[in-house]
Design goal:
The protein is built from 6 helices and 3 strands. It is mainly alpha-helical and 131 residues long. The protein has a 3-stranded antiparallel β-sheet with strand order 1-3-2. The longest helix is centred in the C-terminal third of the chain and has 25 residues.
């Protein structure tokens, strides 16, 4: 799964800290091996540098909290509404996108699943017409 997009989607629910976000991703895509927690923090740093997340204070244990910026919220909404169709969709990436989205916004996940289905139907029809 794109850790970037998964983190943005989870942060659309509200602010969080690294280990919490790591657990959320694992729970929302249980078929995947967990992402290294260090990758979560490095991705959060990149997201902050690109203006998609920002610091949101700290927890009572002094862990840094992150939240989406307006740009990050728009990117999360886009990822949770539009299938990733760069050429042939990669099966596990498609599954990740649908599962994570369905755990956050079931209506968006249904729409996205229907869009993926239509893409696959068109692709299949094109393959059959070539034979």
């Amino acid at each position: 799964m794109s850790v970037r997009d998964g983190l943005l989607a989870v942060l659309s629910l509200g602010q969080g800290y690294g280990l919490q976000l790591h657990s959320e991703l694992a729970a929302r895509a249980p078929h995947r091996r967990p992402v290294n927690v260090g990758q979560i923090y490095s991705t959060l740093e990149r997201l902050a540098r690109s203006g998609l997340v920002e610091p949101a204070g700290t927890t009572v244990d002094s862990l840094p909290l992150y939240r989406l910026t307006d740009t990050g919220a728009a990117a999360a909404r886009f990822w949770m509404s539009e299938p990733v169709l760069d050429g042939l969709p990669e099966w596990t990436e498609m599954l990740d996108q649908v599962l994570v989205t369905s755990s956050i916004d079931p209506v968006a996940a249904k729409t996205m699943s229907e869009r993926y289905r239509r893409w696959w139907e068109r692709d299949l029809a094109g393959t059959r017409s070539e034979v």
